[in-house]
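Q: Entry one of two.
A:
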Amino acid sequence: MWLDRLSQFLRKITGGDLWAKPTGGAQRLPLIPWQWDGPKRGVLYIPESFADRPGTLLHEIFHTFEARFEIQPIHGFRSEVRSAFPDWKGSGEWDFYSHHLGRVSSSVGLSNFIFAGRDGYAVTAALFAANREAAALAGPGIRRAFGLSEEARRNHPAFASDATNEALYARALGLNPSCLPALRGLGMLRLGAKDPLAAKALFERAWALDPGSADTAYWMGVTEANRRDTETAALWFRRALALEPGDRRPAEYLGRLRRE
């Protein structure tokens, strides 16, 4: 699919928004609003007023570089976090960039500064069509369904009962039966209620529409671990790590499985 040939997207913010700030990094691309985000790609937001400042552009591009090669924490050249990079002996922002560019170039090669194919997740025409059909069936209710799911997600677990959140997810799925955050959220509630089979069915529905979700893969792993299928659980946790290497949850769960 055409998306697999593209690794980086540059978005230039035009107009007179005085509060617009340049940012860089990576995110999953919202291919079908309120329904489905596609694979992760590098993204830059450069307001028009910053477009002629090469230092700003380099700074934001490096945030995308950090996201691709998992260089954390960000702004490592600052004194409060530079201890995280003991192999860097220089000083200053530009020297910090030079150090990491050289390190990556000599180890894996700058030609690997691409996101496409990194996590084994490719958008197929069938996957795109399935989500487009789901969005079309939901119609105008699709945005409201997403909003209800977000309300439940913000509630959980401190500010509302499971019954309250379950009602919100049920309303969301009534508006859009393929609402991904509602399927995941309701699956988590079912898991908390000691019903891993019901949870698995919900997570499987979400995964069929969004096999790029590290969160769904993680919860599939938790579900299988609850069902005592540690081998399948480990496969799901490794899949979650492939999609989101910076997420500590699946790595920690894998460690627990090895110790058990």
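Q: Entry two of two.
A:
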Amino acid sequence: MKNFCGFVFKGLTLASVLVFSGVSFAAETVPTQVKCVIGSPVDKTQVIVTQVLDVLKKDQQDIKDNFSKVENDISAILASSIDINKIADYVVPATLMQQATPEQRDAARAVLLKFFISSYSTAFKSFNENVSVTVYPMRAGLELKDTVQVNTAVLTDASGNPNSIIPVALVMTRDAQACQWKYVDFVVDNISAVSNVQSQIQAIKAKTLVELTEIIQKHNDAVAKGN
């Protein structure tokens, strides 16, 4: 359990939420091949962290009065950088996915993405102007791997107190089709966010993917209304 700015989370805090080409030409006799050059996962994380902090600093009044707006702004930043396909394959029982149609799987992934983000968005309510995030550099060569871990730390106040520093590990995979790095998990206090979500999904015990989707959608709607 973490007590972050007076708000207690199940191992997950603001830290866990803050945390998400080039062209080569062949010979004229061979069809042109386009190769995507993906940048550094550390650089991408730094950009996203900066964007999220900028929104929170700008919307401090909305954090108090209109939190749904803040959540939507943050979701817009994070959504395209989360590999919800891989997360869904991990957290949703395989039998439900296999028995569903492609359209049903797409619908499930969409509500699961919202669920994944909104489940921890309450941490943003604890944001204050003293919060800062450090994104640590990665050892040379590691960015060539298909799966990497980007280490970050959230400083919850400016005192320098070690207890105010929350380490967060962000797990990213290379998505060659989308030509970018995407987040597949984040870990705080050795607690995996994806494993946490998986436990919640399994507890629902839905018999079909449609049923699971409807239940998650109802949860998302309740969260949006502040219930």
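A: Comment on entry two: The chain has nine helices and seven strands. The mean pLDDT is 81.
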